């Protein structure tokens, strides 16, 4: 699975890491995702949560299949792409 963050999301995560609030972008993103659980209507026992769990499970299986097929990128490649997107967004802002 590939996730594309918009420039603002990327900047927020990078800032949190630069400020030392998280040791890595992955940890910052994990914290954000875990925070979503607080927003699930009805809590962890709700049908919405069960649907979210199933969707997440399917996405993990897709990611595993991509890894097995060699469809992976290094952290440096991902960060370079994110930084390029941020720069393009900055360059296009009047």
Kindly list the characteristics that best describe this protein.
94 residues, mainly alpha, globular
Q: Would you give an account of this structure?
A:
There is one protein chain. The chain has one domain (7-92). The longest helix is centred in the middle third of the chain and has 22 residues, at 47-68. The protein has 94 residues and is mainly α. Helix content is 68%, strand content 0%. It starts with 6 loop residues before the first helix and ends with a helix. α1 (7-18) crosses α4.
> Can you tell me the residue ranges where pLDDT is under 50 for at least 5 consecutive residues?
none
Helix/strand/pairing category? mainly alpha
Radius of gyration: 16 Å
Quickly count the domains. Answer: 1
* Main beta sheet: none
In short:
The chain has 94 residues and is mainly alpha-helical. The chain is 68% helix and 0% strand. Helix 1 (7-18) packs across helix 4 (75-92).
Set down the secondary structure blueprint:
Elements: H1 7-18, H2 25-36, H3 47-68, H4 75-92
